[in-house]
C-alpha cells in the first residue's frame, strides 16, 4: 500500500517559504536564498519519491518459458513405440510411412513401396495390440529386440481376421558409424505375423 503523497508534498513545499522567512527575519545577516533552486529541488524530490516501487505490491509474475517437452506418444522412438507407429500408419492407410519404418530404408520388407501398399489393400479395418518388448540381443555393434503383436480387424471380402506373431527390430549400437541417417533408430527387421483363429477378445497370450 502506497503512503499518501500529500504530507510529503506539503512539507517539501514549505522549504522555500521557510527559507524566505529565515532570510527576512532580523537584520541583514547577508544570507540570500535562491528560491528557484529550492523549488526545483523540491519538485525533484517529489518525483523521485513517486517513482519508488510500492513495497506492498506483489511483484509481476515472470512470463512462463515455452515448454520443449515432447508430447508423449507423438513420436515414440522406443521399440514398442515404433511398432505402434507402424500399425497406426497401416490402419490409417499411410502405407509409405509404414514402409519407411522397415530397416534399410524399407528394403527389409522384401517388397517395393508399391507392392507393400498393395499387400494391405485386402483389409477393411486394422487394429493392433502391441505387447512388451523382450529377448533383447546385442552383438558385433548391432542391437535387436522382439515385440509381440496381435492384429485384428475385418477383410474387404467379408469376415474378421486375426494375426499374431513377433516383430523383430534392429538398430546399430551407439558409436557405430553409418551412412544411413536412421542407423541408430529402431527399425523393423522382420515380422512373423501369421493368421490365427479369430477370438472374441484381442489379447496377447
Structure description:
Strands 1, 2, 3, 4, 5 and 6 form a six-stranded antiparallel β-sheet that branches. This protein has five helices and six strands. It is 30% helix and 23% strand. The radius of gyration is 40 Å and the shape is globular. Helix 1 packs antiparallel against helix 2. By secondary structure, it is of the alpha+beta class.
Keywords summarizing the entry:
6 strands; alpha+beta; 205 residues; six-stranded antiparallel β-sheet; 5 helices; single chain
Order of helices and strands: HHHHHEEEEEE
Q: Assign the structural class, choosing from mainly alpha, mainly beta, alpha/beta, alpha+beta, or little secondary structure.
A: alpha+beta
- Globally, the shape reads globular
Strand content: 15-25%
Unreliable residue runs: 1-31, 57-74
Mean pLDDT: 75
Radius of gyration: 40 Å
How many β-strand runs? 6
Major β-sheet, in short?
6 strands, antiparallel
Cα(first) to Cα(last) distance is 69 Å
Fraction of residues in H or I helices: 25-40%
Number of helices: 5
Describe the protein's topology.
Layout: H1 6-24, H2 35-51, H3 79-91, H4 95-99, H5 113-119, E1 123-130, E2 134-139, E3 142-155, E4 160-172, E5 187-191, E6 194-195
Antiparallel strand pairs: 1-3, 2-3, 3-4, 4-5, 4-6
Amino acid at each position: 500500500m502506497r503512503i499518501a503523497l500529500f504530507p510529503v508534498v506539503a512539507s517539501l513545499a514549505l522549504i522555500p517559504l521557510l527559507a524566505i522567512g529565515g532570510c527576512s527575519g532580523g537584520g541583514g545577516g547577508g544570507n540570500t536564498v535562491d528560491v528557484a533552486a529550492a523549488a526545483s529541488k523540491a519538485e525533484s524530490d517529489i518525483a523521485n519519491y513517486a517513482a519508488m516501487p510500492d513495497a506492498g505490491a506483489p511483484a509481476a509474475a515472470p512470463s512462463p518459458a515455452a515448454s520443449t517437452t515432447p508430447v508423449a506418444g507423438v513420436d515414440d522412438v522406443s521399440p514398442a513405440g515404433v511398432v505402434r507407429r507402424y500399425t497406426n500408419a497401416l490402419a490409417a492407410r499411410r502405407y509409405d510411412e509404414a514402409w519407411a519404418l522397415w530397416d534399410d530404408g524399407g528394403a527389409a520388407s522384401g517388397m517395393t513401396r508399391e507392392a507393400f501398399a498393395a499387400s494391405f489393400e485386402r483389409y477393411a479395418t486394422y487394429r493392433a495390440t502391441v505387447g512388451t518388448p523382450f529377448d533383447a540381443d546385442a552383438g558385433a555393434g548391432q542391437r535387436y529386440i522382439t515385440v509381440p503383436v496381435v492384429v485384428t480387424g475385418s477383410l474387404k471380402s467379408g469376415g474378421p481376421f486375426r494375426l499374431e506373431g513377433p516383430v523383430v527390430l534392429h538398430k546399430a549400437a551407439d558409436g557405430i558409424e553409418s551412412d544411413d541417417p536412421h542407423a541408430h533408430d529402431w527399425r523393423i527387421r522382420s515380422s512373423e505375423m501369421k493368421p490365427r483363429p479369430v477370438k472374441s477378445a484381442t489379447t496377447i497370450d
